[in-house]
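Sequence, structure tokens reproduced for absentees:
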Amino acid sequence: MDEDKAERAKKTGLFAQCSFALVRTATWPQEEADSLAAELRLHDGEVVLDQYPEENLDLSAITHVVSDTSDFPDYNACADALIPVIKPNWVQHCLAKDKLMNPRQYSPDPRFFMSDVTVCVTDLPSGDADAIIGGILAMGGLWSAKLTSQVTHIITLSMDSETVGFAQKRGLDAKVVLPHWVDDCLKLGRKIDEQPYQLPNPEILKVVSKPPMGKRKTHVEGALHPDPTELGQQPTSPRKLEKVFKKKSVMLADDLGISPYLRGILNELITTGGGKVTDLVSKADMYICKYREGRDYKIASRAGKDVGNLAWLYFLIQTDEWTSPMRRMLHYPVAKNGLPGFPGLLISLSNYSGDARSYLENLIMATGAKCTKTLKQDNTHLITAHDTSEKCAAAREWGVNVINHLWLEESYARWKMQNMTDKRYTHFPQRTNLGDICGQTHLDRTVLEQNFFPDDDTEMTDAPAKPMRQVDKNAIEPPSARRVKSEATKTISSPVQKPQTPAQSRLIGAGKENITPSTTGSRKSKDVAASRLHLAAEDIALFEKESKRRGGVIYGGRRKSDPERVELGRKRSMEEMDDVEMSDDSEVKKLKRGTEAPQMRLVISKYEKWVNKPKDEDRDKKQLRSLGILITTDPTKATHLAAPHIVRTVKFVTALAYAPLVISTDFIDACLEEDELVDPEAYVLKDTVNEKKYEISLKDSRKRAQKNANQLLQGRCIYCMENIPGGFETFKSIVEANGGRCMLWKNRKGTTVPSGRAGSEESTDTDANNDVYLLSDDKGNQALWSRFREMVKGSRKAPKIVKTDWILESAMSQELRSTKPYEL
């Protein structure tokens, strides 16, 4: 061994200190893999393994794994051992630069969705350029200060750029795109087609009446339904299976409910492919079942075996290539009772077609919700690929939630209904059909473990344990940020660790992930983690800065015709200043500055000191953040609400539904003046004048809000006139924060009152279903009231036409007030 080390020390090639394992896949041709292996050896690199998966992967003998995909069995084991997995082009780029490049920018992990992008940014304001570069780097892409043959995209606003002219002169194959493309990719957390953004004639700057068309090929091929037998499908193998079942044992669970004939076919395909069928889960490498339950399912999952459903097994037979059952949503067993919160929902689809539509229909059913063919007022949600259709306009008029499919996929992956106020779920790029990116979300193994096979499950006491290797994780949080947080936690944690018992896998500890046990190599792992933190911090900081900017990465580069353009240099009114968005600090900033988690999250309304003084505002916010006070505009996260007195702004009234402690803005002044976090209880807002005026008590309102739990208006239908003072969106926010349903009243014929949802709480609330409200004023709207009364009475309900004061004062007092004093 010492002689081998001495011999390697004499070599001077670029890869002299590196040992590689090549992971061959169907998408990486044999000739290219052989050529790469020869290139590595030519520069003194050692190719330890180049016939994976036929040969086992020995992590102790390698420094790098080369693969064009993260979808191979030992990917998680490599990540846990801090062994970088890199794409083949890393080798060429290292040779071109004559140095070892940062492997993070060459990861095949799909979470780094910009990993095949190298950008050159030109003729943009420095702030926009920095934001684009930060976002690209954080999402796995590369940036080049100079135009080279490796650049894939030139980001600019015009074809008149010198860089573009130089690229055309040299004949470089680089796409010239608007910065809007990067902006939309980062907002969605997915890479979308750049064609509508390409210069010289980008579609997104044209007035086009027809909706964007989607592509036919998606990522859901072979994963449209969790149980192909329900569709009458049988497995078909185009050739003799040679790889996928070789030396593997497969167990077919009893809950599959398949006939003996089909079971015989599957057994034959597995055995002729070099595998064998077993009835013991302890001897199985693959466990095929229908539901996420039962002792065998839990044992197989805890032991790190491949757990999938029949659709996954059919896919393996069809392709003869291994793929993780967590890579595609419907390749993994489903839950019998659906996703909490989804049973009873009525969801309709719009603008999805082909495989994408079939996939989403079946995913909706897997959550326990009902997928309706047509959109009605009873629908709770409309999932659409773009928002330029009549169906979307009708949904908004009826108060139906309009979101894209990412909300459904990520709710299913995280096993929790996601907040629909997240802008990623309501973002629809103008000329992109989001059906093109269906199926890119992966299941999260940590979430599955917590919900379906936790450590404290009594059925799991004698389950074998070994390191997990299934592909998991597809969180939208920047992968580099999540890895940095995980590694930083390990680096700064106490060196004293509890020894793990043999029955517990070191990769799947309760509530923790990738915790390295105490070994002789732990010090090295911590050093590597610390170095990775240092390397990634700058990229992540740039990305976080970009993601919080108003207008995204094209703040200074939007054209005047852009509908989302933010005007510069214009003084804002008091109303606009009151609702200006204030950025939350990122986890990266916590790491870089050592700032602790905030002790309070504060929503501020009508703070006069910051009006038209953005520099003072930024300075004060930073000082407050250093004191543990995080300024936010999200009322759902607020622990405190600050105002000079009781006001009727949308932020103040909406926030009251979440029961924050209401304090005076004098608290902010005191903290800034004393440069320390003073006791907020000493600054509780006292406004007897307005409390008497509105007949409320802030103290009592808070108690009621805690008891109401955002359900003050549960089951109530509230319509708004189109010309309502303050605007429809203002009252929609207030109503929805209190659990009600708010719809726009346009006086159209044929409109009906939505009925109660089957199985929901509101269907049992007689009073809530009987009264239907219309918020209006008495200035010329009387002619529109008659049809509203006819509609409500036609539904055998009671119409209530009231002033907006009724909803405002009900929300402020957190008790449903009688409508009589407010009726028109």
